[in-house]
Amino acid sequence: MSRPRTPIGTFGDISFQTMPSGQVRARVRFRDDDGQLRQVTATGTSRRKAETTLKSKLLERPEQLRGTGELTPDTPFPKLAEIWLAELDAEGHLSTSTRQLYERDLATIVLPAFEHYTLREISISKVDRFLKAQATLSYSRAKHAKLVLSLCLGLALRWEAIARNPVAGTTRLRKPPTAATSLTAAQVEAIRRAARGWRRSGGLVGPKPDGQLEAIIEVMLGTSARIGEALAIRKCDVDVTSTPATVRICGTVVSPKGMATYRQDHPKTSRSSRTVAVPSFTAQVLRLRLAALADEDPEHLIFHSRNHTPLTTANVRRRLRAILAEAGITGVTPHSFRRTVATVIDRASGADLAAEMLGHTSSRITKLHYIEPNERVNPLTAQILESLAPQGTADQTADEPGTD
């Protein structure tokens, strides 16, 4: 019959031995975190002091042995950061752009604050002060820093190099109140005029615009697509033979650092893949684009560079900024068109349909970030409240002085 195994982290009876010097040695067999039984000793001037010293050593021992691989409580934070990034690459579930964003935030925001600390020295109070300092600069900066630091220290927690993730105990970040703003019909028309007229007057040096930006604007207004999603639309994603015409949104254009821009075969989220019916003004520009690409492969992008490579979102944004600045229009980005679509649909049919159009998992996100608040209460309330009118109003008015 096998002997029962001592549970990890426990010890048996303590034995004592008086040394020739008069010191007392306490000795015990302790089963460590790796499952091995080891003898632990301590000395003191008396049995009680030797036992107290021994128990103190035993209490510290699990932490000393914790993370016996690459990570321990004394591992410098930069080493943890290096291992964490390697883990992300090994898992391979992040998009290239997200992986690069994490690395950038880690290098520019988090590492400068914690590079001289070991893991045991990163306390809740240190992390809390750090995040509050970032929040004074920008809510977005603090949010990004908190996410990256939490994920990084989460790895140390899983590898048992720390007892808890200090980020979990910090003060909740409060996002400053903001309200989504959409474009009015007049503003949309002004943007269209500015795009149509840009660099088309005589005497200008260089090639004239090819008309793609104007078409991109109409596609974003008609599909609610993000800029990267609009640039990723292929010939095979468009059906102008149906009524109404439809567009399949199932990819996005990305430009990873150090790599060529390419079409990613999925959009931002799984829910973002969708087929949307488009209005006539969007269908018209898509017909023109399809006609221009009649001899191209079905996989060819609707919008492309002169070399038939994907357009970058950065270049399209830069071109839009230049056009709007010349026209004196400020505060408009490609995302403004997406908010405008959400607001128009919400006013007509509610937030649920707007969320479906934008590819959101719930209307809460749409309401919070995309739909412009409607401060005008339904005028039906006036009719309903007529029931509270004072009785005999007409007679009182006739009896007032100065009335006929």
Automatic annotation (TrEMBL):
Alphabetized, the UniProt keywords read: DNA recombination, DNA-binding
Entries under Gene3D superfamilies matching the protein:
1.10.150.130, Intergrase catalytic core
Core-binding (CB) domain mapped to chain residues: 75-157
Cited InterPro entries: CB, DNA_brk_join_enz, Integrase-like_cat_sf, Integrase_catalytic, Integrase_recombinase_N, Tyrosine_recombinase_XerCD
Pfam family, any one: Phage_integrase
Looking up CDD domains in the UniProt record yields:
INT_ICEBs1_C_like (cd01189)
Please report the stretch or stretches of sequence annotated as the Tyr recombinase domain.
Answer: 178-390
Which protein family is it in? Belongs to the 'phage' integrase family.
* This protein's name: Tyrosine-type recombinase/integrase
Species, as recorded: Nocardioides panacihumi
